[in-house]
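Progress narrative, Year 2. Work on Thiol-disulfide oxidoreductase from Photobacterium aquimaris advanced from sequence curation to structure prediction during this period.
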Amino acid sequence: MTSTKFLAGDVFPEITVSTLTQETISLGEIKAPFDWKMVVVYRGQHCPLCTRYLNELEILLSDYHDIGVDVIAVSADSKTQLAHHKTKLTVNYPLAYGLTIEQMQQLGLYLSTPRSETETDHVFAEPAIFVINAEGKVQVLDMSNGPFARPDLKVLLQGLAFIRNPDNNYPIRGTY
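Result:
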């Protein structure tokens, strides 16, 4: 199977998902008081590393907000699976569910089939992060083909603070 990878500097596509409260959210939409947004794609409730990562992000959430970056996390899980996962999470940022295979492919994500029915019951995305700037372009992206390779959230925060500092005039990298 061939796959097109999402490119740094591209405009983040219009992808609509739902939250547990049945709110419909456009993943890339940036709302005041924030002017950037970080979309965290996670594997789903079956992944203990995702649970840990999402809970670690909550600890740093106010620091991300302080530099103007809002956060949302999303998976291909169903509403029921997200509701179950929520019981293991200590997060206050929005969690969304229901990414379709087409949406995951549009983002160029690595997709996996479950190893067994006990893991999950659907194709799911491997971890990814998209940081969208005020122009709606992807400033920073990270995609993995497995749960063990993800950016350190503190290092990412420090890097985004550096990028956001106008004195640094830091461009979108990897566009050559």
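The longest strand covers residues 36-41. The radius of gyration is 15 Å.
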